[in-house]
Amino acid sequence: MDTPLLPRYPRTPHLPSSPGATADDVVGTWASFAPSGDDEVIATLKMDGENTTLHRGGVYARSPSGRSRPWQDRIRAFAAGICPDIPDGLLISGENLTVPHSIVYDRALPPFMVFAAWEGDRCLSWAETVDWAELLGLATVPVIYQGRRPLPQALHDAFLAVTDTSRDEGYVLRDAGSFTRRQFPERVAKWVRAGHLATDSNWPASKRTRPRAN
After folding, report:
1. Is residue 16 part of a domain?
2. Which phi and psi (to 5°) does residue 14 adopt?
3. pLDDT tens, 133-181?
């Protein structure tokens, strides 16, 4: 099927415990975060890159109407080898990690890490997302928790067990199953470290490149 008008990636609300939420952010409640089915959720590291979507016709950062930026040349070059293999109607969303954002990672990372896949108005389940990433030869963001909806402290303990707030921006909690774009605010939420720098349209200020994974 043909890809319809390309959508902007939805805005992700903060969890109520997120110290990085500002007055301009949407903050949800644990009660509103209501996974479907068996209540299984996935928590992944929130990698500090540029929200980017790949599709058969090309690549865009968060919004298809956004302006092209010079630092996006690297992700466009990378995507040129991937996009022709993406079926019409499928969108692959992830983090562009080709240039430093607010965090300069000291570990090797792939240029792009998948966190969601869309078919029309439907966000695919995490299992389907992983399957598509593997088929396309793409990495997915690291999973730090998988299971029934945890208590807030248990989830945060799982995050601190694998990283610390000087090394990573935070984590994203999502329903393991599929859901619609309209359901997104109740199925996906994030925790962001306090004082995380929000970069503007002029990033990156430096020409440094990230270390690449083999």
Report:
1. no
2. -85, 150
3. 999 999 999 999 998 887 778 888 888 888 877 778 899 999 999 999 9
Q: Is residue 111 part of a domain?
A: yes
In-domain check, residue 92: yes
pLDDT digits (tens, 9 = 90+) for 195-207: 655 554 444 544 4
The residue range of the domain holding 108 is 40-192
Structural domain total, the chain? 1
25 occurs within a structural domain: no
Q: Give the start-end residues of each E strand in 97-138.
A: 112-119, 122-123
Is the distance from CB of 95 to CB of 53 less than 8 angstroms? no
**CATH number assigned to the domain comprising residue 85:** 3.30.470.30
The amino acid at 92:
I
Most confident option among 8-17, 34-43, 144-153? 8-17
Of 109, 106, 172, the C-alpha closest to 145 is 172
Asked whether the beta carbons of 146 and 160 are under 8 A apart, the reply is no
CA proximity to 124, closest of 75, 174, 83: 174
- DSSP for 43-95, please give it: EEEE-SSEEEEEETTEEEESSTTSPP-GGGHHHHHHHHTTGGGSPTTEEEEEE
